Amino acid sequence: MWNFSAGPAQLPKTVLEQVHARLFNFQGCGCSILEMGHRTDEIRAVFATLEENLRTLLQIPRHFDLMFMQGGGRMQFAMVPMNFLQETGCAIYCVDGTWSKGAQERALRYGQIQTCSMGADPFARATAEHAYAYYCDNETIHGKRFACTPRKHGARGLVTDMSSNFLSRPIDWEEMGLVWAAAQKNFAPAGLTVGIVRRDWLNMAYSYTPTMMNYASYAYGHSMPNTPPVFQVYVAKLVTDWLLAEGGVERMDRRAKARSQLLYDVLDQYPDLYVHEVPRAFRSRMNVVFHLPNEELTQEFLSVARQNDLYYLEGHRSVGGIRASMYNAMPIEGARRLAFVMKEFAKKV
Ligand SMILES: *Cc1c(COP(=O)(O)O)cnc(C)c1O
């Protein structure tokens, strides 16, 4: 079965096998990791290894702190302005899809928000009055991504949502203030959100910010201001072990390019059947989004796909159509098979 779910999404098979094999007796402790206290040496070591692995994979500079949080993407939509907006009361958001729009709408409650849109230089208007410049690196629902990191111009720094392409491309830390990612797309099971923040961006939160929504609580408290999501962190650690063994983030980037290119070639070959609206420069390597001319053909396509072992290709409920999500764990064979089935379908109808 090939799993094209947008999230929660496919995890590497070897990781699931490791979880399975070790579930009842964690490192000889005699009990399951699901039953262990989070302040034991064993669990602290899991957190420390995950942090070290991420630092290696993404070449995170030492003046950035890692934070393992809960609450998912929507909690970050509120945490970002609560923590960073106070200094100038104003920020600029690049709005290009559901997730950047959601973040911008939430931020409006905390200060003055200006907007811009995806393009060659989205933050060209940013000045020192902008506490940060916000964008979503990969819009999961619309299948759009930034080809390269935008410039922050006058803004203090960038804040980026990398939920659906975290660990699939290197990060340019030069302009970053915060990178965050909800884990359930390209990283780990739902229930974990990773944040990587410049240390000098901590301690600027509005005074009404709850402890659990203050980045400093995580950065200074080893991500344990309360009981953390131990199991999710453990699976994330196994995923980063796997990524290191597989050759790292650049390798993932090349694989993602190869997988998505297989599908984009078919879209370009049959543009009347597979309608694709994202400009070439912004094509996502994670989520290939298109639609067929009518609902009947869409359903027929999905049914043919299922007969060929290709599952969860339905587009997001807000846009319909088809979405093929191919994250780090998707082998190239899955993309090949889908491309083949799409071509065969196009020849028949
Ligand atoms: C899924 C997603 C979110 C929302 O995540 P939740 O944890 O469900 O709130 C935010 N941003 C991006 C890019 C996403 O793909």
Care to describe what's here?
The chain is of the alpha/beta class. Helix content is 36%, strand content 15%. It contains 9 helices and 13 strands. The strands form 4 sheets. It has a 7-stranded mixed beta sheet with strand order 2-10-9-8-5-3-4. Helix 1 packs across helix 6 (230-246), helix 3 (72-84) crosses helix 4 (98-107) and helix 6 packs across helix 7 (248-269). The chain is globular, with a radius of gyration of 21 Å. The two termini are 25 Å apart. 47% of the residues are buried. The model has no long low-confidence stretch (mean pLDDT 97). The structure holds pyridoxal-5'-phosphate. Pyridoxal-5'-phosphate is lined by residues 7, 72-74, 99, 136, 140, 161, 163-164, 182, 185.
Structure characteristics:
alpha/beta; binds pyridoxal-5'-phosphate
Characterize this entry briefly.
By secondary structure, this protein is of the alpha/beta class. It has nine helices and 13 strands.
- Dominant shape: globular
> Which hetero ligands occur in this complex?
pyridoxal-5'-phosphate
- Main beta sheet: 7 strands, mixed
Order of helices and strands: EHHEHEHEEEEEEEHHHEHEEH
Q: Record the strand order, biggest sheet.
A: 2-10-9-8-5-3-4
Relative helix content: 25-40%
What is the averaged pLDDT score? 97
| SS element count, helices | 9
Q: Detail the poorly predicted runs.
A: none
- Helix/strand/pairing category: alpha/beta
Count of β-strands: 13
Radius of gyration: 21 Å
